[in-house]
């Protein structure tokens, strides 16, 4: 009979510990019954969302031995206090304010108390949660390529250039709104309009979670390809890697970040004219 010495017990404990500690990052989205006008953009069963959700749960992308060592499980939830209590992060896809308004307060409370939040709010009328946070969509723009910096355009899945928009409902954000909320401008289109912004944990407010606001859901869905990865697919996976693994504020100062993006867009335009 094997003797269970303290050394043997410690060896067994260390061997089994990963089995108990490896827990997937849970991300919830609104049940399709709450998105009756979303058709293909519904988180639950929307044809435009399917490839994106499958990519998030692909162990080659997220999981032990994957590009990011963090397993992802996506869920359909009712985003009230009870539903949000069971997830680490919440994604709000293309979602009419008329249908999302009943849940705005609970989602904001979830975020301010440490939950991660990703808003794909498109043009106005689908930005209710962002508006409550002081980051509404302020206008509609043309379909133009978007470029930017880390952590969304440059991350563990590579560098994404000229990320495309589509669908006809593209919005843009206010520079002042993003900066006044302690955020970082991450991506701008060729019209010098802010399309993507991000906040690390605790950056929006003390105790808040990480936050991504992007004013076009098509950048992650209808325009993204995940096998093989195109630039939009790289952008989408980098964005989620940031959301699922970020525990600290983004360390890039806002003004240099904005200047870097503007210079980069200028260089792209020069190259196109040659």
The gist of it:
The chain has 274 residues and is an alpha/beta fold.
Strand and helix layout:
Layout: H1 6-21, E1 25-30, H2 47-56, E2 72-77, H3 81-84, E3 89-92, H4 97-100, H5 104-112, E4 116-120, H6 128-132, E5 137-140, E6 146-148, E7 154-155, E8 158-159, E9 171-173, H7 175-180, E10 184-189, E11 194-199, E12 211-214, H8 231-245, H9 254-273
Parallel strand pairs: 1-2, 1-3, 3-4, 4-12
Antiparallel strand pairs: 5-9, 6-10, 7-8, 10-11, 11-12
Description of the molecule:
By secondary structure, this protein is of the alpha/beta class. It has a single domain (22-273), classed as Rossmann fold (3-Layer(aba) Sandwich), CATH 3.40.50.880. Helices cover 32% and strands 19% of the residues. It contains nine helices and twelve strands. The protein has helices spanning 6-21, 47-56, 81-84, 97-100, 104-112, 128-132, 175-180, 231-245, 254-273; strands at residues 25-30, 72-77, 89-92, 116-120, 137-140, 146-148, 154-155, 158-159, 171-173, 184-189, 194-199, 211-214. The chain has an eight-stranded mixed sheet with strand order 2-1-3-4-12-11-10-6, with helices on both faces. A hairpin with a 4-residue loop joins strand 10 (184-189) and strand 11. The longest helix is centred in the C-terminal third of the chain and has 20 residues, at 254-273.
């Amino acid at each position: 009979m094997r003797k269970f010495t303290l050394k043997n017990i410690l060896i067994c404990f260390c061997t089994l510990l990963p089995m108990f500690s490896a827990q997937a990052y849970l991300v919830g989205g609104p049940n399709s019954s709450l998105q009756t006008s979303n058709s293909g953009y519904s988180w639950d069963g929307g044809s435009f969302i399917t490839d994106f959700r499958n990519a998030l749960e692909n162990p080659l992308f997220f999981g032990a031995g994957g590009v990011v060592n963090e397993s992802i499980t996506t869920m359909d939830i009712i985003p009230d206090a009870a539903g949000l209590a069971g997830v680490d992060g919440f994604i709000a896809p293309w979602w009419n304010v008329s249908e999302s308004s009943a849940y705005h307060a609970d989602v904001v409370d979830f975020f301010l108390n440490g939950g991660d939040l990703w808003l794909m709010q498109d043009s106005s009328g689908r930005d209710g949660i962002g508006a409550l946070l002081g980051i509404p969509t302020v206008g509609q723009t043309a379909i133009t390529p978007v470029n930017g910096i880390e952590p969304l355009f440059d991350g563990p899945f590579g560098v994404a250039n000229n990320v495309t928009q589509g669908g006809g409902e593209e919005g843009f954000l206010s520079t002042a709104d993003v900066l006044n909320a302690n955020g970082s401008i991450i991506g701008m289109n060729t019209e010098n309009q802010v399309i993507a912004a991000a906040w690390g944990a605790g950056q929006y407010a003390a105790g808040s979670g990480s936050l991504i606001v992007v004013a076009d859901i098509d950048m992650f869905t209808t325009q993204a390809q995940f096998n093989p990865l195109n630039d939009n697919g790289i952008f989408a996976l980098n964005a989620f890697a940031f959301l699922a693994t970020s525990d600290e504020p983004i360390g890039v100062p806002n003004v240099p970040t904005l200047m870097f993006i503007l210079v980069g867009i200028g260089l792209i335009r020069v190259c196109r004219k040659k």
